[in-house]
Amino acid sequence: MISVTELRNGTKVEMDGGLWECLDYSHLKMGRGGAKVVTKFRNMETGSIVDRTFNSGEKLQDIYVEGKKMQYLYKDGADFMFMDMDTFEQVILPPSLVGDAAKFMKENTEVEVAMYGEKALTITLPNQVILKIVETDPGVRGDTVSGGTKPAKLETGAVVQVPLFVEQDTNVKVDTRTGQYLSRA
User: pTM of the predicted model, to two decimals?
Assistant: First the structure.
């Protein structure tokens, strides 16, 4: 159990029957009344965000979330198959858990999966991945004062904006957090 005054950004707790991550907190001291802690939490299972206010003496149950290195193997229908890099055990994760990360995952991509007990909570991709462009229009140099861009479809199906000089079948480095082109690889 931790006191609400010990909450920090990224602290993970169990409350209201769910697993929550603290996104923001502030400690407010009223003139005559007791201090209050105003927080913002994100549900780690559904992604919903709530604001909560606690009195300074309240306690919450903290949880330990373990990060496991896993490797994406393949897509099986709608589900995604991962392998634990330590035990070589295979785990099936639903598309609701993988979310937008699927746009930048190709086979054999190593990811970090946040686990609470035996339950997977979130997937974290590497900050940058190298993917191949499978479809893009030829770059037409026209009236562009500064560098123009064009859409390019990657091998995973994601579409990113790339500079005009980038051609089809080129490997590019993409930022997985923003989905933006970084450079040729």
Answer: 0.71
